[in-house]
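Incident log, structure service

09:12 report received: a user says their structure output differs between two submissions of the same chain.
09:20 pulled the input from the user's history:
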Amino acid sequence: MLLPDARLLRRGKPHDGEHAVDVHPESDGIVHFDLSAPHLSRRAARAGVHPAYGGAVPPDVRYRTGRVSLAFGRSRGGGVTDVAVSLRAVSKRFTLRHEGQSTLRDFVLRGFRNPRTREAFWAVRDVDLEIPRGVPYGIIGANGSGKSTLLKLIAGILRPTTGTVRTRGRVAALLELGAGFHPDLSGRENIHLNGSLLGMDRRSIARQLESIVAFAELERFVDMPLRHFSSGMTVRLGFAIAIHAQPDILIADEVLSVGDESFQRRCIDWVHQYVADGHSLILVSHSLSLIEAVCRQAIWMRGGRVAASGDAAAVIDRYHRSSLPQGEGGDSAGPRRWGTGEAVITSVRPIDDEGETIEHAVTGESLRIRIGYLASRRVESPQFGLALHASDGTHLAGPNSDLCNAPIAEIDGVGSVDVVLPRLPLLAGLYRLTVAIYDRHATVAYDHHDRAYELRVENGAIREIYGSVWLGAMWEHRPARRRVQSHPMRTAPSSGS
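09:34 re-ran on a clean worker, output below:
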């Protein structure tokens, strides 16, 4: 879903661009806002749809806000806060209705009424959270842990059952694929539609339209109806519109995981500049490598509660260990492993040119590392990766099959992949290897073994002993063609001579 600040349902104007949303029991109220978009094509009008919602909705839309009070103003104390999002004791409860099971006889005796039972389900429970301005923030957790519900609470799409949610600045949320778009309109027309929903005026949309299209890589398809767009094209378009709306807070659910590697890199580059300019990003993704690459801080949601928060790498590490059995890192200092399991790594061993396992590698000589795998189904275009780490954890290099221009069409069943280093550049020492299998976009881990294997290297004939890397450098001396005659230095005469 692509939404602007959902709290545009307001009774007053914010002061100095800052607003807070306090949620507490209060009488219902009616609020209004106009969603008409006169600059859209006549085709939308002829379709009998309101362009903002894809259905026959009168332009004068009325919404009942329920028990939500919107209070605008500066934070207490009158100063400008560095907190973009603040949640205090926030909980969200849903009611689950269960149909009763009975025989036809019981159904008739009850007067054709089916008994229903209700169950309270807390999707989010007692969450306290502060997200600073200018900090990319990640939310991780298993399916059903409350991640998406938490995003909707922050965006204002849902209101909490208890607690307080405060945000500062304009919010744009990318939560569900295709929401805020109309399938019968072209990509160009949907840019006007979605831009209007995000608070952009016609001039701003027209001025940035070509830039939006270029960022989404849709130059050839922008005048096609949206129904012919792939899911990746739709997400790229939504993300491009959202970032050109220049929100203060961008909320994204699995958006950066969509698209090819080139688009992901441009998104990540944009995110880095976005947060460097003082804006805030809140990102939910099952791609833990993406969270670690993009986010500085993170929380781990488990059962609707915050299980861990803080530095993104540390939170991800705790999440990894919790998902592993004892002896594989779950409650020990052993190696970390995670992945979907559709393809798993069965063995990793250094071998010589004849395929025999070797006890150590030699600097400057050829090294071949054989990675055995088992794919439970056919996996198309997987990426195999290898990372080398020094003993202190420093990441030295990380080649993968795609970056080395060695694409693998598919894997199915049992097999192996060799990584060949023609002249090993590592100097003598003990190193650790990370080995992984990912999907074609390098965002979904099938099996990731983090620093799980040791590699011992000896120098052999190489005499270098300083540092970790052998460069194989060569020195060349080019003497002068003729000897330069040296002259003794002349001293300045003293004043008394």
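09:41 both user submissions now match this output. Likely a transient worker issue. Closing.
09:42 reviewer note: The chain is about 20% helix and 35% strand. Residues 338-458 form a domain with the Coagulation Factor XIII; Chain A, domain 1 fold (CATH 2.70.50.60).
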